[in-house]
Amino acid sequence: MSHTAGALAGIRVLDISRILGGPYCGQILGDHGADVLKIEPPQGDDTRSWGPPFKDGVASYYMGLNRNKRVQHLDLSSAEGRDRLLQLLEHADVLVENFKIGTMERWGIGYDALSRRFPRLVWCRVSGFGADGPLGGLAGYDAAVQAMSGIMSVNGEAGGEPLRVGLPVVDMVTGLNAVIGVLLALQERHRSGKGQFVETTLYDSGLSLLHPHAANWFMDGRPPRRTGNAHPNIYPYDTFRTGTDPLFLAIGNDRQFATLCQVLGRPELAADERFATPGGRSTHRAALKALLEDALSGFEAASLVDRLMAANVPAAPVLDMDAALSHPHTAHRGMVVDIGKDYRGLGAPVKLSRTPATYRHAPLTPGTDFESD
């Protein structure tokens, strides 16, 4: 891939974070051209051991979060390590850290201690709950925050137990929010000439994901219930059985519903007063699902999905990981990338026309200083 300068070319990022949220932020900044130097403790980021699978003793978990960075090892608990960090901060635009709150302050290198020395530095902290308040300073973990933020309460089969989302959604959204915060602060720096403190927390990010359940609760005060794959407000927006494999329908308006009924050979369903409006379809969802699955039983899923999508009806096959990552459109969108012979990972989802993401450094690339301009 061409190494055209990215949108963040010239921005120097010191990533002293570990685990997921902070490193994910650093990787995104690196994908878009920032020079990212990752500082790890002498034993390395904990996620190097989060496997299997492993390659050359390093877990895939680590490899998925640390490309486009160069790595050096420093013991920040030592005076020598802190002195070296201060040298690096002289040339940095952004610091990303997720130490337990109070750790860097105890070492004498917290934001309050250093902000005057580095007035243009954008300091991004990723934490569990923030520094103060009833939960301030406590450690946060993705699954625990899924549990206490309400996410698990709305995830799972109808009538079943609360269920964790099957990927670290809170950690990843916190990392995305960190990227947004860094970019906002860098943009503001153009006006003021000053950096600032940016904070994203797992707790805030978990709560931010509660739409539309929170909006529903604010309006009517009714606790949401688990609905499996079905949407709480819209129907048919659910997984349905066919004559072969399941498919997912995501019908959002009357036109889409009428077209679905035509394709299925059941136009009378669109005229049924129970199903004539979005609210009616949602209210009478159990009856509607039974009627639709009866109609769908005569269809083969893959060919029906093609027909529905061609008719502008949102529908999708339910693919496993292998099928999704091997799909021709995945390749077309550049969502699987290779660096050299030993690295393969997910591509950057944000596409820019003049300054696209580039993939320059495989994980574990050594580095001792920022690259020269």
TrEMBL record:
The keyword Transferase applies. InterPro entries: CoA-transferase_III_domain, CoA-Trfase_fam_III, CoA-Trfase_III_dom3_sf, CoA-Trfase_III_dom_1_sf. One of its GO terms (molecular function) is CoA-transferase activity. It comes from the Bacteria. Keywords: Transferase. This is Carnitine dehydratase. It comes from Bordetella bronchialis. The lineage of its organism: Bacteria, Pseudomonadati, Pseudomonadota, Betaproteobacteria, Burkholderiales.
